[in-house]
Design a protein that fits this description.
The chain is built from 3 helices and 12 strands. It is mainly beta. The chain has one domain: Porin, CATH 2.40.160.20. The strands form 2 sheets. It has an 8-stranded antiparallel beta barrel with strand order 1-2-3-6-7-10-11-12. A two-stranded antiparallel sheet has the order 4-5. The longest helix has 21 residues. The radius of gyration is 23 Å and the shape is elongated.
Protein backbone atom coordinates (compact mmCIF):
# COMPACT_ATOMS: atom_id res chain seq x y z
CA UNK A 1 0.00 0.00 0.00
CA UNK A 2 2.75 2.47 1.00
CA UNK A 3 4.92 1.64 -2.05
CA UNK A 4 1.98 2.12 -4.42
CA UNK A 5 1.15 5.46 -2.81
CA UNK A 6 4.65 6.86 -3.28
CA UNK A 7 4.94 5.45 -6.82
CA UNK A 8 1.77 7.30 -7.80
CA UNK A 9 3.02 10.47 -6.10
CA UNK A 10 6.32 10.30 -8.01
CA UNK A 11 4.55 9.82 -11.35
CA UNK A 12 2.27 12.80 -10.77
CA UNK A 13 5.15 15.08 -9.76
CA UNK A 14 7.18 13.96 -12.78
CA UNK A 15 4.22 14.83 -15.00
CA UNK A 16 4.05 18.30 -13.46
CA UNK A 17 7.78 18.77 -14.04
CA UNK A 18 7.60 17.78 -17.70
CA UNK A 19 4.68 20.14 -18.21
CA UNK A 20 6.57 23.02 -16.62
CA UNK A 21 9.57 22.68 -18.91
CA UNK A 22 7.36 22.31 -21.97
CA UNK A 23 5.40 25.48 -21.18
CA UNK A 24 6.44 28.48 -23.29
CA UNK A 25 3.66 31.04 -22.82
CA UNK A 26 3.27 33.51 -19.98
CA UNK A 27 0.14 31.76 -18.76
CA UNK A 28 -0.09 33.15 -15.24
CA UNK A 29 0.51 36.83 -15.93
CA UNK A 30 0.61 39.18 -18.90
CA UNK A 31 3.90 41.11 -19.20
CA UNK A 32 1.98 43.98 -20.84
CA UNK A 33 -0.41 44.33 -17.88
CA UNK A 34 0.81 47.33 -15.86
CA UNK A 35 -1.64 46.59 -13.04
CA UNK A 36 0.41 43.60 -11.84
CA UNK A 37 3.66 45.60 -11.67
CA UNK A 38 4.62 46.99 -8.21
CA UNK A 39 5.30 50.72 -7.89
CA UNK A 40 9.04 50.25 -7.36
CA UNK A 41 9.27 48.46 -10.73
CA UNK A 42 7.25 50.96 -12.80
CA UNK A 43 10.45 52.49 -14.17
CA UNK A 44 11.69 49.14 -15.45
CA UNK A 45 8.26 48.42 -16.91
CA UNK A 46 8.26 51.72 -18.87
CA UNK A 47 11.81 51.13 -20.11
CA UNK A 48 10.88 47.63 -21.27
CA UNK A 49 7.78 48.85 -23.09
CA UNK A 50 9.94 51.49 -24.85
CA UNK A 51 12.58 48.85 -25.76
CA UNK A 52 15.14 50.50 -23.49
CA UNK A 53 15.44 47.49 -21.17
CA UNK A 54 15.60 43.87 -22.40
CA UNK A 55 13.87 42.49 -19.29
CA UNK A 56 10.22 42.90 -18.26
CA UNK A 57 9.42 43.92 -14.70
CA UNK A 58 8.66 41.07 -12.31
CA UNK A 59 4.98 41.08 -11.21
CA UNK A 60 4.15 41.84 -7.61
CA UNK A 61 4.09 38.90 -5.23
CA UNK A 62 0.74 37.85 -3.79
CA UNK A 63 -0.61 36.03 -0.79
CA UNK A 64 -1.90 32.55 -1.58
CA UNK A 65 -4.53 30.80 0.53
CA UNK A 66 -4.68 27.02 0.39
CA UNK A 67 -6.88 24.16 1.59
CA UNK A 68 -5.85 20.52 1.39
CA UNK A 69 -7.28 17.06 1.98
CA UNK A 70 -5.57 13.68 1.91
CA UNK A 71 -4.14 10.77 3.86
CA UNK A 72 -1.92 10.40 6.92
CA UNK A 73 0.37 7.69 8.29
CA UNK A 74 2.78 7.35 11.20
CA UNK A 75 6.10 5.68 10.47
CA UNK A 76 6.96 4.06 13.79
CA UNK A 77 6.97 0.74 15.63
CA UNK A 78 3.35 -0.27 14.97
CA UNK A 79 1.90 -1.13 11.57
CA UNK A 80 0.10 1.99 10.35
CA UNK A 81 -3.04 2.20 8.25
CA UNK A 82 -4.03 5.05 5.96
CA UNK A 83 -5.67 7.81 7.96
CA UNK A 84 -7.18 11.21 7.17
CA UNK A 85 -5.43 14.58 6.86
CA UNK A 86 -6.51 18.16 6.20
CA UNK A 87 -4.70 21.49 5.98
CA UNK A 88 -5.17 25.26 5.78
CA UNK A 89 -2.28 27.57 4.94
CA UNK A 90 -1.30 31.07 3.85
CA UNK A 91 1.78 31.61 1.68
CA UNK A 92 3.66 34.79 0.69
CA UNK A 93 6.35 35.01 -1.98
CA UNK A 94 9.69 36.47 -0.86
CA UNK A 95 11.53 36.18 -4.19
CA UNK A 96 10.91 34.43 -7.49
CA UNK A 97 12.24 31.24 -5.88
CA UNK A 98 11.51 31.43 -2.14
CA UNK A 99 8.28 31.90 -0.21
CA UNK A 100 7.17 31.62 3.41
CA UNK A 101 4.11 29.64 4.47
CA UNK A 102 2.09 29.58 7.69
CA UNK A 103 -0.10 26.55 8.08
CA UNK A 104 -2.36 24.34 10.16
CA UNK A 105 -2.30 20.56 9.60
CA UNK A 106 -4.69 18.12 11.22
CA UNK A 107 -4.46 14.36 10.98
CA UNK A 108 -6.17 11.24 12.30
CA UNK A 109 -3.85 8.23 12.11
CA UNK A 110 -4.35 4.69 13.33
CA UNK A 111 -2.53 1.39 13.50
CA UNK A 112 -3.21 -2.24 14.30
CA UNK A 113 -1.23 -4.00 17.01
CA UNK A 114 0.25 -7.50 16.86
CA UNK A 115 1.35 -10.22 19.29
CA UNK A 116 4.95 -11.48 19.06
CA UNK A 117 6.12 -14.85 20.40
CA UNK A 118 9.74 -13.94 21.13
CA UNK A 119 11.36 -11.50 23.54
CA UNK A 120 14.24 -9.79 21.82
CA UNK A 121 13.18 -6.22 22.52
CA UNK A 122 12.35 -3.99 25.47
CA UNK A 123 8.75 -2.80 25.23
CA UNK A 124 7.62 -0.26 27.77
CA UNK A 125 4.51 -1.90 29.20
CA UNK A 126 3.46 -4.81 26.99
CA UNK A 127 4.86 -8.11 28.39
CA UNK A 128 2.48 -10.85 29.41
CA UNK A 129 3.14 -13.71 31.84
CA UNK A 130 4.29 -16.09 29.09
CA UNK A 131 7.15 -13.88 27.93
CA UNK A 132 5.39 -12.70 24.80
CA UNK A 133 4.91 -9.04 24.01
CA UNK A 134 2.48 -7.09 21.88
CA UNK A 135 2.26 -3.75 20.16
CA UNK A 136 -1.05 -2.02 20.89
CA UNK A 137 -3.59 -0.77 18.39
CA UNK A 138 -3.68 3.04 18.45
CA UNK A 139 -5.47 6.15 17.29
CA UNK A 140 -3.57 9.44 17.14
CA UNK A 141 -5.11 12.85 16.55
CA UNK A 142 -2.48 15.49 15.80
CA UNK A 143 -2.89 19.25 15.42
CA UNK A 144 0.08 21.14 14.03
CA UNK A 145 0.96 24.80 13.50
CA UNK A 146 4.00 25.43 11.32
CA UNK A 147 6.13 28.08 9.65
CA UNK A 148 7.94 26.87 6.54
CA UNK A 149 10.15 28.08 3.70
CA UNK A 150 9.29 26.81 0.21
CA UNK A 151 11.89 26.82 -2.57
CA UNK A 152 10.72 26.45 -6.17
CA UNK A 153 13.25 24.41 -8.14
CA UNK A 154 12.05 25.29 -11.65
CA UNK A 155 11.84 29.11 -11.35
CA UNK A 156 15.44 30.13 -10.67
CA UNK A 157 15.41 32.68 -13.51
CA UNK A 158 13.55 35.90 -12.70
CA UNK A 159 12.93 36.60 -16.37
CA UNK A 160 11.75 33.32 -17.87
CA UNK A 161 8.13 32.98 -18.93
CA UNK A 162 6.07 32.15 -15.87
CA UNK A 163 5.51 28.35 -16.09
CA UNK A 164 2.20 26.62 -15.57
CA UNK A 165 3.72 24.18 -13.09
CA UNK A 166 5.74 24.74 -9.95
CA UNK A 167 7.92 22.04 -8.36
CA UNK A 168 9.14 22.84 -4.85
CA UNK A 169 10.79 21.55 -1.69
CA UNK A 170 9.95 22.74 1.82
CA UNK A 171 11.32 22.83 5.34
CA UNK A 172 10.29 24.44 8.60
CA UNK A 173 9.44 24.24 12.30
CA UNK A 174 6.19 23.28 14.02
CA UNK A 175 4.44 22.97 17.35
CA UNK A 176 2.19 19.94 17.77
CA UNK A 177 -0.61 18.78 20.05
CA UNK A 178 -1.29 15.05 19.80
CA UNK A 179 -3.87 12.89 21.57
CA UNK A 180 -2.65 9.28 21.54
CA UNK A 181 -5.10 6.53 22.51
CA UNK A 182 -4.25 2.83 22.65
CA UNK A 183 -6.02 -0.50 23.07
CA UNK A 184 -4.33 -3.66 24.33
CA UNK A 185 -4.79 -6.97 22.52
CA UNK A 186 -7.33 -8.13 25.11
CA UNK A 187 -8.90 -4.71 25.64
CA UNK A 188 -12.33 -3.60 24.52
CA UNK A 189 -11.89 0.18 24.46
CA UNK A 190 -9.21 2.81 23.84
CA UNK A 191 -7.43 4.59 26.69
CA UNK A 192 -5.45 7.82 26.77
CA UNK A 193 -1.77 6.88 26.64
CA UNK A 194 -0.32 9.33 29.14
CA UNK A 195 -3.13 9.02 31.68
CA UNK A 196 -3.38 5.23 31.54
CA UNK A 197 0.33 4.33 31.59
CA UNK A 198 1.91 7.13 33.58
CA UNK A 199 5.00 6.95 31.36
CA UNK A 200 7.47 9.82 31.98
CA UNK A 201 7.84 10.94 28.33
CA UNK A 202 10.60 13.37 29.28
CA UNK A 203 11.01 14.61 25.70
CA UNK A 204 7.64 16.35 25.67
CA UNK A 205 7.17 20.09 25.76
CA UNK A 206 4.27 19.44 28.12
CA UNK A 207 0.77 17.97 28.37
CA UNK A 208 -2.81 19.22 28.48
CA UNK A 209 -5.17 17.48 30.90
CA UNK A 210 -2.83 14.44 30.93
CA UNK A 211 -4.26 13.49 27.53
CA UNK A 212 -2.80 15.83 24.90
CA UNK A 213 0.95 15.64 24.30
CA UNK A 214 2.75 18.85 23.26
CA UNK A 215 6.02 18.74 21.33
CA UNK A 216 8.14 20.67 18.86
CA UNK A 217 8.96 19.21 15.47
CA UNK A 218 10.57 20.02 12.15
CA UNK A 219 8.82 19.57 8.81
CA UNK A 220 10.17 18.80 5.36
CA UNK A 221 8.88 17.52 2.05
CA UNK A 222 8.21 18.30 -1.59
CA UNK A 223 5.29 19.03 -3.89
CA UNK A 224 4.03 20.35 -7.18
CA UNK A 225 1.26 22.67 -8.34
CA UNK A 226 -0.38 23.20 -11.73
CA UNK A 227 -2.00 26.51 -12.67
CA UNK A 228 -5.57 26.36 -13.89
CA UNK A 229 -5.71 30.14 -14.43
CA UNK A 230 -4.00 33.28 -13.15
CA UNK A 231 -5.49 32.94 -9.66
CA UNK A 232 -6.20 29.26 -9.08
CA UNK A 233 -3.90 26.25 -9.03
CA UNK A 234 -4.13 22.69 -7.80
CA UNK A 235 -1.26 20.78 -6.21
CA UNK A 236 -0.07 17.55 -4.67
CA UNK A 237 2.24 17.58 -1.63
CA UNK A 238 4.13 15.04 0.44
CA UNK A 239 5.04 16.39 3.87
CA UNK A 240 6.74 14.84 6.91
CA UNK A 241 6.95 15.97 10.54
CA UNK A 242 9.62 14.56 12.86
CA UNK A 243 9.49 15.39 16.59
CA UNK A 244 12.56 16.86 18.26
CA UNK A 245 14.41 14.82 20.90
CA UNK A 246 13.46 11.47 19.34
CA UNK A 247 9.93 11.43 20.78
CA UNK A 248 8.72 7.87 20.12
CA UNK A 249 5.16 7.52 21.44
CA UNK A 250 3.00 8.84 18.60
CA UNK A 251 2.02 5.23 17.85
CA UNK A 252 1.58 4.44 21.58
CA UNK A 253 4.71 2.26 21.62
CA UNK A 254 8.46 2.77 21.97
CA UNK A 255 10.80 0.06 20.72
CA UNK A 256 14.24 1.55 20.07
CA UNK A 257 14.01 5.22 20.96
CA UNK A 258 13.88 6.53 17.39
CA UNK A 259 11.33 9.27 16.64
CA UNK A 260 7.99 8.47 15.06
CA UNK A 261 7.40 10.38 11.80
CA UNK A 262 4.04 11.79 10.70
CA UNK A 263 3.45 11.55 6.95
CA UNK A 264 0.80 13.64 5.18
CA UNK A 265 -0.04 13.29 1.49
CA UNK A 266 -2.51 15.99 0.46
CA UNK A 267 -4.29 17.30 -2.61
CA UNK A 268 -4.14 21.09 -2.31
CA UNK A 269 -6.39 23.77 -3.77
CA UNK A 270 -4.62 27.14 -3.92
CA UNK A 271 -6.02 30.61 -4.64
CA UNK A 272 -3.88 33.71 -5.25
CA UNK A 273 -5.16 36.83 -3.50
CA UNK A 274 -4.06 39.29 -6.20
CA UNK A 275 -6.10 42.08 -7.74
Amino acid sequence: MVNKKYTLLAVLLLTLGVTSYAQTSTFAWDWKDESVVPEKSKGQYQEFMQNKNPFPAKPRSAWEISAGIGTSMIFGDVDSKLGFAGSLSLRKAITNTFSVRFGYYGSLSNGEGKIYDYTGLSPQFTYDTRGRYYTPSYKTKNHELSTEILASINTFSNYRGDPKANIYVLGGLSINAAQVDFKSTNGTSYQHLKKATGLPMKDLLGTLNDNVLLFFGYSYGFGGAYKINSKFNIGLEQRFTTPFKKFDFLDAYSKNGGPDIISLTTLKFNYNLIK
